[in-house]
Design goal:
This is Helicase-like protein. By secondary structure, the protein is α+β, with helices and mostly antiparallel strands. The protein is built from 27 helices and 23 strands. α10 packs across α16, α14 packs antiparallel against α15 and α16 crosses α17. The strands form 7 sheets. The protein has a 6-stranded mixed β-sheet with strand order 10-11-9-8-12-15. A 5-stranded parallel β-sheet has the order 18-22-23-21-20, sandwiched between helices. Among the domains are: 285 residues, no CATH class; 248 residues, no CATH class. The two termini are 37 Å apart. Helix content is 31%, strand content 12%. β16 and β17 form a beta hairpin.
């Protein structure tokens, strides 16, 4: 038999995603997982993704990856449009959040994408903390020593006055907005400014050809920012979240204390000192960004030349902490402006700012006497303001509407009115007052070691558990509304915290202590973080909505009223072992080898008989029963005492309740109960599944079917007898299959969901082993193998369809992927024509109406049956891919399972 040529192989796997893990270069950490279509040039195919697009510009800070944000608001201000028009060449550090937050929002609700699935095991949250917030009041000797050494050295940092820091920040903001920095600034001017005000000049000549070059300045700044034990390391997730707390989290004496206040020790000046060092770090990082942008733009315009040796030196010396400082500086320059005003005499009759947005325009006095209580002192005051407050408010309203927040229109209107009042009103000067020490500080850590308890031993959880105390006009809200948020999971917490902090009724009903990685019941609905297994399972239900890491569902726990809950969950043993350096992602060769389109075949000798056409719905011996599945209850069993509870003995009353002790967040084991009906036999049985394991679901990557499968028509192909390649509907064979072929290396077995439900005690290994050699079903495992590599759970065949309810989308489509490849195995829906539905994908040219139709269909995906199959996986501890027919073929899903090292594929209609 003739072997397949390279051209034939490329035709066979046209539109088939291929899975990679490649290093981005030296000093960049773990490899970068990616999906590509190396044999396709069509934009419609290369643009296919397994995750949703960012819906709102207010949420754009969620990732450091270059991306396109679809703006749902057309009423952009003139300032926003002007800012967008001034975009120029920017420097991007080769350092980004892990996991990739774009990939954290999979097309299937409650799922992630391929990149995030591999990066969860090397996530930023797995790092040990450098030094926590509780150490601000009692800083480690190494930190004090390093800072003193830096200030006394003649080859490093000068002593910079607070006013100089603020003036330089104002100047850098203006420079950043200029169209072409290189045309208006020369290197010598920037050199003099840097080394006369901020740094000491180099003690030796670094560049004999041009001692005042930008490269010299860049390396000097990198050297200072890379100094250990001196600056905040934003590579740690907690510090990214606490950035806003350090700027805004200090209450004045007569305000209610923030629940997550900083532990200031015995000296009230400690917090001001830490804010000084933070602002100095922001300044240095902004100076570095300005110069890196200038040299990048100069290279782009042919005005500057960078030597390879300089690039290598920069990559070597700019450690992860420096690169995260650059990311932080970029966020600052994009979203924050500092405005200088003259101080006026204050009288005791002046009113304090009112409203949760008014606090964003507080004046921060950083003069020498700002720490005193003398309000009659004159001197410059500096306002730290968000540039895009209205954009952030629109984003919050979008978030609330998407989650179907109770009484959305009324509450969003109140927030918008508050916003306009603050913008139009005259802010009142409020110098920064040194906070008094509060002995009843509730938490010293945002991630919450409860007061009085020792920190537990490090447990490498792939998803961190985050608790916070909410407070009206708190620093969580200020961080979001100002736009000062760093890439990573933080924005998901900020969005929900801001929504709750500014909904008085929600605070009254739910309390001020929040478990932002758990869930809560409110107004007859339940809201769950996707970090919680209950949220990831309920997301599969019809009508569930996902937005920015949160799930809204009409399913509520049985017998539970309004309030927060935490769910008891165990890690999957394999996941617990495969973290950091042991993560599968480091095995680059294994990831690619176990997902190759040619399997283990020699590329020079590939035969048509080496491939099969995978299927999940052919049962020649016995047709599976037609079953109907209905969810009966979500149950939370007796609470687990002393596990993730929040002690409240020392907490005082909140501003919204007279209760002296806010309710404790209890931890429950969760389970779901279903009623399964055999329609033909009329039997009804109940089944309960415990949501016990912290598993993950991945959206199988979309593909575009090959039109060349017929070249595999061969009597020696293992599955040819079961597949009708002619498309004529031959009796006894499956319908025409236009997916991709699968090499026989990828052994799998298909098991109908009804059989899985009928079993009670079984393991995945037993299922793979027994069904691989069973003679009563068409096995795709050669007899020489003892077990199949992948279990495909058939959730398509013989299920009684649920009635489709018409649903109007709340916003336009957020992903082109659904409409690109959603119907290549069925006729096109009447609302659309052409495009992907005919197999000729034209996603880049689709109209807004098609996108809205696609989003409607995406929201309609889901059923109680899909909740049930996810619940089985959660009970058994099976990480699983979700492969939706018409979006992607089974062969590509099985290969992706090989890349991830997973063994379960859920095949849904």
């Amino acid at each position: 038999m003739a072997t397949l040529t390279d051209s034939e192989i490329e035709k066979l796997f046209s539109g088939a995603p291929q899975y990679f893990a490649r290093s981005e270069g030296h000093y960049t950490g773990a490899p970068h997982p990616s999906v590509a279509f190396p044999w396709d040039e069509e934009l419609e195919i290369r643009d296919l993704t397994d995750h949703t697009q960012i819906e709102d510009k207010a949420w754009s800070c969620v990732t450091a990856w270059p991306h396109i944000t679809r703006d749902v608001h057309s009423d952009r201000s003139a300032a926003q449009r002007a800012t967008e028009e001034k975009r120029r060449a920017h420097f991007y550090p080769r350092c980004r959040e892990r996991p990739n937050m774009l990939s954290m929002f999979g097309l299937e609700k409650g799922s992630v994408g391929y990149q995030a699935a591999l990066e969860l095991a090397v996530a930023d949250a797995l790092q040990e903390e450098q030094w926590g917030f509780e150490n601000i009041g009692a800083r480690q000797p190494a930190i004090v020593e390093q800072r003193q050494k830096m200030l006394t050295s003649k080859d490093g940092l000068r002593h910079v006055e607070e006013t100089v820091i603020m003036e330089q920040l104002i100047k850098n903001s203006k420079r950043y907005s200029e169209k072409h920095l290189k045309e208006r600034r020369v290197s010598s001017e920037l050199y003099n400014e840097l080394f006369l005000q901020v740094l000491h000049p180099p003690t030796k000549v670094l560049d004999h050809k041009d001692p005042y070059s930008l490269s010299v300045q860049i390396l000097a700044l990198v050297k200072v920012l890379a100094a250990p034990n001196m600056w905040i390391d934003f590579s740690h997730v907690e510090w990214r979240i606490r950035l806003g707390q350090l700027l805004w989290g200090s209450p004045v004496e007569d305000e209610i204390e923030d629940g997550s206040s900083i532990k200031t020790g015995d000296s009230a000046s400690d917090i001001n000192e830490e804010r000084y060092w933070l602002l100095l770090q922001i300044l240095l990082a902004c100076e570095l960004v300005i110069r890196l942008d200038a040299i990048t733009e100069g290279e782009e315009l042919g005005l500057e030349s960078i030597r390879p040796a300089e690039i290598h030196k920069f990559e070597r010396e700019a450690n992860k902490s420096v690169k995260w400082s650059l990311i932080m500086a970029r966020v600052w320059l994009e979203n924050i402006e500092v405005v200088k005003t003259e101080a006026t005499e204050r009288t005791s009759t002046e009113e304090k700012p009112s409203g949760w947005l008014a606090t964003l325009t507080k004046r921060m006095s950083l003069t020498r006497d700002s720490g005193s209580h003398n309000h009659h002192s004159r001197g410059p005051l500096y306002v730290i303001k968000g540039k895009h407050v209205q954009r952030q408010i629109n984003g919050l309203a979008h978030f609330a509407r998407r989650l179907r927040w109770p009484d959305t229109d009324f509450r969003v209107s109140k927030i918008s009115d508050n916003c306009r009042a603050v913008v139009e009103g005259t802010p009142i000067s409020t110098p920064l007052v040194t906070p008094s020490t509060h002995s009843s500080s509730r938490h010293s850590s945002y991630f919450g070691t409860p007061r009085g308890e020792s920190k537990p031993e490090r447990n490498p959880l792939r998803r961190r558990k985050v608790s916070a105390a909410l407070h009206t006009s708190g620093w969580l809200s200020k961080s979001y509304v100002s736009g000062l948020m760093l890439p990573g999971e933080g924005i998901c917490h900020f969005l929900m915290a801001t929504l709750l902090e500014n909904d008085p009724e929600a605070l009254a009903r739910l309390g001020t202590t929040a478990n932002l990685c758990g869930g809560f019941v409110y107004w007859g609905k339940s809201f769950w973080s996707t970090a919680c297994i209950v949220g990831r399972v309920l997301a599969a239900g019809k009508g569930a909505v996902e937005c920015m890491g949160w799930i809204s569902s009409d399913i509520t726990p049985q017998g539970l009223g309004d309030g927060w809950v935490n769910i008891e969950v165990e890690q999957v043993p394999e996941d617990a072992q495969q973290v950091d350096k042991k993560a599968r992602l480091w095995g680059k060769l294994a990831v690619e080898r176990e997902s190759r389109v040619l399997g283990d075949a020699d590329p020079k000798s590939v035969f048509p008989a080496d491939f099969i056409i995978p299927f999940e719905n052919v049962y020649p011996d016995k047709k599976p029963p037609t079953i109907k599945i209905q969810l009966k209850a979500l149950s939370l069993w007796a609470p687990v005492e002393s596990v993730h509870t929040t002690p409240t003995e020392e907490e005082g009353p909140t501003p919204f309740t007279d209760v002296s002790r806010p309710p404790e967040i209890r931890t429950y084991p969760a389970a779901v109960t279903f009623e399964v009906t055999d329609v033909e036999a009329g039997e009804v049985k109940e089944h309960t599944y415990s949501l016990a394991k912290d598993i993950n679901f991945v959206t199988a990557h979309p593909c575009v079917p090959s039109q060349h499968v017929r070249i595999l028509k061969s009597p020696t192909s293992p599955t040819i007898q079961h597949v009708d390649l002619s498309g004529n509907g031959v009796a006894g064979k499956t319908a025409s299959v236009v997916g991709h072929p699968l090499h026989k290396y990828f052994t799998y077995t298909a098991l109908h969901l009804s059989e899985l439900i009928a079993k009670r005690d079984f393991s995945l290994e037993a299922l793979l082993g027994s069904y691989a050699s069973a003679s009563h079903r068409p096995s795709l495992t050669p007899a020489s193998n003892s077990a199949a590599k992948v279990l495909v759970i058939d959730c398509i065949t013989g299920f009684q369809p649920q009635p489709q309810e018409h649903e109007i989308p709340l916003s336009p489509v957020i992903s082109r992927t659904d409409s690109q490849s959603s119907s290549y195995l069925s006729p096109a829906p009447p609302e659309s024509s052409g495009g992907a539905e005919g197999g000729d994908v034209a996603g880049a040219l689709q109209s807004a109406s098609k996108k809205m139709h696609s989003e409607t269909r995406r929201r309609q995906f889901g059923s109680d049956m899909e909740i049930l199959v996810r619940a089985i996986c959660a009970e058994k501890g099976w990480n699983a891919l979700i492969s939706r027919r018409r979006r992607g073929c089974l062969a590509c899903a099985i290969r992706e399972a090989g890349a991830l090292g997973w063994k379960v594929v859920i095949r849904v209609d």
